[in-house]
């Protein structure tokens, strides 16, 4: 069972979520504690020497060498591994000891702890803040918050009723009982706005609209791997939330066709009808057409 499904079910069982983020994780990892964790898993003397040299190597800024006593070089291939190893001891194992009855989930420096009451969530946040301080780290002041999982059965009035995790936004949403068709409010995930903006930026950076030298099949070969991945990941929960992205893809295709074919220039209706016919005749050409998610041809 994946992290999104686990989190979704936990939000139904627990009323509160502590969403935490660690401020500047890569820049603030203390070398002494990090190397202590590394030595628990690496026995090769030469490997330990090289890891320590790599961590402490001075960095150049504006032509000046700056000594480093903490942090891992961002962009380094082993930085994510070292940071996860550090948090395994700083958070994961500590959490199982300090709060063994509370479920949690962590991805890199973002994490969730599910709590039964607001008071319990506040206590966990205070404990975690103290724990991170001991480990030379601190919570991000604006990205850490306590969230109320509001739905039809939890009708309290609290300021924070949503959180983002792994590209999804969890918040109260309209739902329908599949058996009784009754409409109610449920606490559910759907693709986040930041994820949608990132996907739109990826499509925009392909510069498809100006590539009039290529065919529509060439465009499909470039777009389909991206579309399939996005639909597979984000389309599992509330796939209708992907509508803005799919509409943007279709609008990009329209803009490309209007540039490529003289007969379509200045004729939005004509090019829209052309693409609608193409989607009908060749539904497998683009991944979202295959799944019946053509979006709208605005």
Could you describe the 3D structure shown?
- The protein is an alpha+beta fold and 298 residues long.
- Helix content is 47%, strand content 16%.
- It is built from eleven helices and nine strands.
- The strands form three sheets. A four-stranded antiparallel beta sheet has the order 4-5-1-6, with helices on both faces. A three-stranded antiparallel beta sheet has the order 7-8-9.
- The two termini are 38 Å apart.
Please count the helical segments.
Answer: 11
For the termini, the CA-CA separation is 38 Å
Low-confidence stretches: none
One letter per element, helices H and strands E, the order comes to HEHHHEEHEEHEEEEHHHHH
Features:
single chain; 298 residues; alpha+beta; four-stranded antiparallel sheet; three-stranded antiparallel sheet; 11 helices
In short:
By secondary structure, the protein is α+β, with helices and mostly antiparallel strands. Helix content is 47%, strand content 16%.
Write the layout of secondary structure elements.
Blueprint: H1 3-13, E1 16-21, H2 25-28, H3 31-39, H4 45-56, E2 59-61, E3 64-66, H5 79-98, E4 104-107, E5 110-115, H6 118-134, E6 145-148, E7 163-165, E8 168-176, E9 183-191, H7 193-205, H8 216-234, H9 243-260, H10 268-281, H11 287-290
Antiparallel strand pairs: 1-5, 1-6, 2-3, 4-5, 7-8, 8-9
């Amino acid at each position: 069972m994946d992290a999104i499904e686990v989190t979704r079910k936990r939000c139904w069982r627990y009323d509160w979520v502590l969403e935490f983020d660690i401020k500047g994780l890569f820049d603030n990892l203390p070398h002494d504690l990090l190397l202590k964790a590394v030595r628990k898993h690496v026995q090769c003397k030469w490997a330990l020497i090289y890891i320590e040299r790599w961590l402490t190597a001075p960095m150049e800024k504006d032509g000046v060498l700056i000594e480093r006593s903490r942090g891992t070089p961002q962009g380094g291939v082993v930085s994510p591994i070292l940071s996860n190893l550090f948090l395994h001891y700083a958070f994961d194992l500590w959490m199982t000891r300090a709060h063994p009855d509370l479920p949690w989930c962590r991805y890199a420096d973002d994490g969730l702890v599910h709590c039964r009451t607001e008071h319990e969530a506040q206590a966990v946040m205070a404990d975690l803040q103290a724990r991170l301080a001991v480990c030379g780290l601190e919570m991000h002041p604006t990205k850490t918050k306590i969230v109320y999982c509001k739905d039809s059965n939890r009708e309290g009035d609290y300021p924070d009723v949503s959180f983002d995790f792994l590209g999804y936004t969890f918040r109260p949403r309209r739902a329908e009982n599949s058996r009784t068709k009754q409409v109610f409010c449920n606490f559910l995930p759907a693709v986040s706005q930041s994820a949608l903006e990132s996907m739109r930026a990826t499509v925009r950076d392909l510069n498809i609209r100006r590539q009039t030298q290529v065919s529509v099949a060439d465009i499909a070969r470039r777009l389909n791997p991206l579309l399939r991945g996005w639909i597979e990941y984000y389309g599992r929960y509330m796939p209708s939330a992907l509508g803005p992205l799919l509409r943007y893809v279709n609008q990009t295709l329209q803009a490309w066709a209007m540039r490529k074919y003289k007969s379509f220039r200045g004729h939005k209706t004509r090019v829209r009808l052309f693409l609608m016919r193409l989607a009908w005749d060749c539904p497998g050409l683009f991944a979202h057409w295959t799944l019946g998610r053509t979006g709208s041809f605005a």
